[in-house]
Amino acid sequence: MRKRGSTLSFDSRDLMRSQCQHCTRLSVARELGVAGVKELVEQFYKAPDNLAIRYGMRFESDLEQELIYNLGDLVQAPHTNSLEATLDLAASGVPVIYQGSVFGGSGEIPFSGRPDFLVRADYELVFTDSGLSAVQVGPREEGYTAWDAKLSTTAKVEYQNQVALYADALRTLGLGSDKPHGLILGSRELASFDPGSLIGQLIPAREKLYLQISALIDEDPQRLEDVGELICEASSYCELCEYPLLCDHMRRQTGHLQLVAGMTRPQLESLHRSGVHTITQLAQFVGSTDKLSPEQTAKLARQARLQQHYYDNAEHIHEVVSRDELDKLPNLNPGDVFFDLEGFSFFSEPGGLEYLFGYTSVDQGEQFHYRWADDRVAEKEAFEWFVSDALDRQQRFPGCKIYHYANYEQAALKRLAERFGSYQSEVNQLIDAGVFVDLYKVVKASIMISQESYSIKKLEAFYGFGRGADVKEAMGSMEFYDQYLELLTDNYPEAEKLKRQVIAYNQEDCASTLALYSWLKSL
């Protein structure tokens, strides 16, 4: 949200996060100059930055360079970010404009945005052997279509709405074409849409944003306290927000229910309607709500009590809720392995890359085994190495299991078997026969812990597992792998150093899975 003079305008990010009224109210209040808002949010400002954003920008930049290579002077960028500079290029008839600016639209509040590509109506985008290009498909035609680059392989509704905003603004500027507008997907496919249909789909979502903005303006807030709760209850939009650190700070300051492990938004809203707003209140709550049974609230209250104990005493505690589930955990078999995969979602080919297969075996003492992959050939070799070993162990150690934490490993193996047309029936047979044991399911069915999450990293405090590797989280391993790829051609020794750090992280994950199994058996 931005205020220029007396005019308030919105951008595509504002529309995407309008599902969260907190985000909208905070950004509008900031631009309206409500006392205390700007000073508060600046303390917690964090520019959105993650691998998805960086790879999205890289994809966009690659497409720009391909167009420049293929089209030369037929593609141009405005000399400034102003609307006027873009209008000048359009008036001169440039076939493809990249990083232009548009302003306006048919709604009550103007839209301000920068479409990745504006393509003159007599041109069409095409993919060629030399990348993205455009070809003239008829006589000179006025008007432009808008195209946005998205690394995603699917044309999500929120992406379509973004293009619709551009198409609508182009119409009000007198530059819109009735030809299809669309998305350039990470799969290097074009998803095209009729602009009228896009704008029609946009209107309800845009009206919802307008109502939120208008409501706050009508309230005429004067102080920070007038803006409302400073916590986002639609936390799935935090990656689009500049203030996730503010939300986290306020959750902890207020003991917000979002901190309760496993809490869903419908559960939270139901508890709020029953007057339960904090972890302390939930820990003491008995009964039911309009949407939750006594059994459901009892489980949530138990989780809250455990967490409150940790907040008050800095002491990790757990409770066994089902000994029957613990009893189902098989005894250790000499052929058992403790398995962990590392994947990289932003690999240059669709589907990502499973770049590290690691497991710890116990038949000859605790030993770590791994295979590393930087391309599809090595990925296939690593996959077949692991499945072949798993099948061999089934023969040598009947009844042995493959332990892992959460469903990623099973899903990835099925995906790889299909990708390579290799070991498909064998992978399905191993899964159907119960060879894979997901310890996350065992944990969730058998115990409760005093943590805000049931990730394996949070569980390690209960079985005393200490980590030494520099990489601490799964996203951290992807960051390290990304840096490794950057260094691979220019600084091989440094790349190898990063590779060893990721392998050490994977080894610790496997060792931690074994330690978790042993702890669960001890219970």
Question: What does this protein look like?
Answer:
This protein has 523 residues and is of the alpha+beta class. Strands 3-4-7-10-11-12 form a six-stranded mixed β-sheet, with helices on both faces. Strands 16-15-14-17-18 form a five-stranded mixed β-sheet, with helices on both faces. A two-stranded antiparallel sheet has the order 1-2. Helix 6 (157-172) crosses helix 7 and helix 18 packs antiparallel against helix 19. It has a domain at 49-211. The protein has helices at 12-16, 21-32, 37-44, 51-71, 83-91, 157-172, 195-219, 244-254, 265-273, 279-283, 294-313, 323-327, 376-396, 408-420, 424-432, 439-446, 456-459, 474-487, 492-522, and strands at residues 2-4, 7-9, 75-76, 96-98, 102-104, 111-113, 117-120, 123-128, 131-136, 144-150, 181-185, 190-193, 318-320, 337-344, 353-361, 367-372, 402-404, 436-438, 447-449.
What is shown here, in short?
The chain is of the alpha+beta class and 523 residues long.
Question: Which short descriptors sum up this protein?
Answer:
alpha+beta, six-stranded mixed β-sheet, 523 residues, five-stranded mixed β-sheet, 19 helices, single chain
- The stretches of 5 or more residues where confidence is low (pLDDT under 50) are none
State the secondary-structure class: alpha+beta
User: Which value, in Å, is the CA radius of gyration?
Assistant: 27 Å
Rounded mean pLDDT score: 93
Largest sheet composition = 6 strands, mixed
Q: Could you estimate the helical fraction of the residues in percent?
A: 40-55%
Distance between the termini: 53 Å
Q: Quick one: how many beta strands?
A: 19
Total count of helical runs of at least 4 residues:
19
Principal-axis shape equals: globular
